[in-house]
Amino acid sequence: MKRNRPIKVLMVSPRLEICGGVESYIMSYYRNIDRHHVTVDFAAHRADEPSYRKDIEQAGGKVFIIPEKELKNPFGMMKKLDAFFKEHGDYDVVHCNMPNGGFYYLRAAKKAGVPVRILHAHQTKYADIWLHSVRNYPLIKLGKLYANERCACSEAAGKFLFGKHFHVIKNALPCERFFFRQEDRAGLRKEMGLEGKLVVCHVGRFCNQKNQLFLLDIFRCLLARQPDAVLMMVGDGEQKADAEAKIRQLGIGGSVILAGVRKDIPAYLMVSDVMAIPSLYEGLPFVGLEAQASGLPCVVSDTVTPELNITGNVTFCSLKAGPEQWADVILECAGRERMPQDEILQKMRRGGYDIHIEARKLEQLYEKMLSADGDGY
Questions:
Q1: Domain with 160 in it: what CATH number?
Q2: Which of 74, 167, 193, 260 has the fewest CB atoms below 10 angstroms from its CB?
Q3: What global pTM score does this model have?
Q4: What is the pLDDT of residues 227-244, one digit of tens each?
């Protein structure tokens, strides 16, 4: 089917703030998609600064904010989204990256006659809090009824949410942006006061899922073995105050850097020696891919899918193991040399994580879905 205009997509995300894994995935594709073929607008509940909002708008996309408070009134939310699609009803695809919001967005999209309605799985659990899981389960089940296409960031996430019949859209990235350069590392470490120190990096939103409080216990054990170690924590979130309190309680404030939300993630990866990801659950953590593209060894909880280990530079550690065992594994991995860039790029491409290739595949997938008019697994 030959089209006389670009495919018009509404990308739905809970937030557009920097440092979120889902947001990083979305922006990676958005920056590399062919806008002559596909145009993308965004609907989100939050875009607190620093966010990607300006980047999106400067590239020609529109950003629609549906306030979080609307979620507390289901009937009001449905009414609001019905009105939204009545006003903006010319989308070919609604691509919903928040399964617990799929019912609201995809129901309204179906009512408005949007032909392709995608529900996209990014996690392997309904929520990190039991009460939220109880709330999310029926919403997600209803959302699946209004989706006519299913996507996931990994096989594990897809099997969790859908069981079978789904497309895997890899968490691809511009690998060259993260390439390691020794001369840059030396300059940045001097500038940041990290010369001669062992640097453990963690990037993620401060929340129960990312398990930062356990990471602080790990780091205290690591400091006992390596007193010159530094933990750099990049991100923000609802549990940041809890993390700050625990840092004071453990007396490790002089060795922990709370960097906040950063756009220069490649620089932080370059000055680091190891990445720690002790998450309770994940679909496939985007930062783990960024770290591998930089040649950085990763120590990751065994609840994360083995699919993450693209380069062979990921070591999985059980969450049942204590912080002392985690500290030993992190120290062991921190001593590894960085993998050559050409070898990394080859492995990332072979695994399907080079955005320059995968963005074309997403364009083709949207076209295929429209041609099939849904249900084209």
A1: 3.40.50.2000
A2: 193
A3: 0.89
A4: 999 999 999 999 999 999
